[in-house]
Specification:
Distance between the termini: 51 Å
Number of helices: 6
Radius of gyration: 27 Å
Number of strands: 0
Order of helices and strands: HHHHHH
Low-confidence stretches: none
Oligomer: single chain
Length: 137
């Protein structure tokens, strides 16, 4: 969410922490709740707090505490998203196969284009004499 926030440093901190942890603002509220109260919360519980934040820029004390902690850790160079359960999962075998197949396909297309260009200079010169598409010289 990229909206302009009024001069409210707590609301700015929520946006900053969402960017630092590469997540959304709603998830920041959930992480803050978990950090402060020591247990997960369902979205229905967090929603009224988040709606208040969205429309009135009201930040609950537990979110304020969390955002300050994350920003402090970032400034100290000790921030790791994995500490908050946000580490990117490792690639699955299926993802690795798809990546390999796309790389092979891209390489094959590049080789085909190089082959076409290297073996057809006469055809290109002949086509230039009968130019149908601009720019023709």
């Amino acid at each position: 969410m990229h909206r302009h926030r009024p001069d409210n440093p707590d609301a700015q901190d929520v946006v900053t922490v969402a960017a630092l942890l590469d997540t959304n603002e709603f998830r920041v509220f959930g992480l803050a709740y978990q950090r402060w109260f020591g247990r997960h919360s369902d979205d229905a519980f967090i929603e009224p707090y988040f709606v208040s934040y969205m429309f009135q820029y009201a930040v609950p004390f537990w979110v304020r505490y969390f955002t300050r902690e994350v920003i402090t850790r970032d400034r100290a160079g000790t921030l790791r998203a994995g500490d908050y359960g946000l580490a990117q999962p490792p690639a699955s075998p299926r993802m690795l196969r798809r990546g390999r197949n796309y790389a092979i396909l891209l390489l094959a297309i590049c080789m085909l284009l190089l082959l076409l260009v290297s073996h057809s200079p006469e055809e290109l010169l002949e086509a230039a004499k009968n130019c149908y598409f601009p720019p023709c010289y």
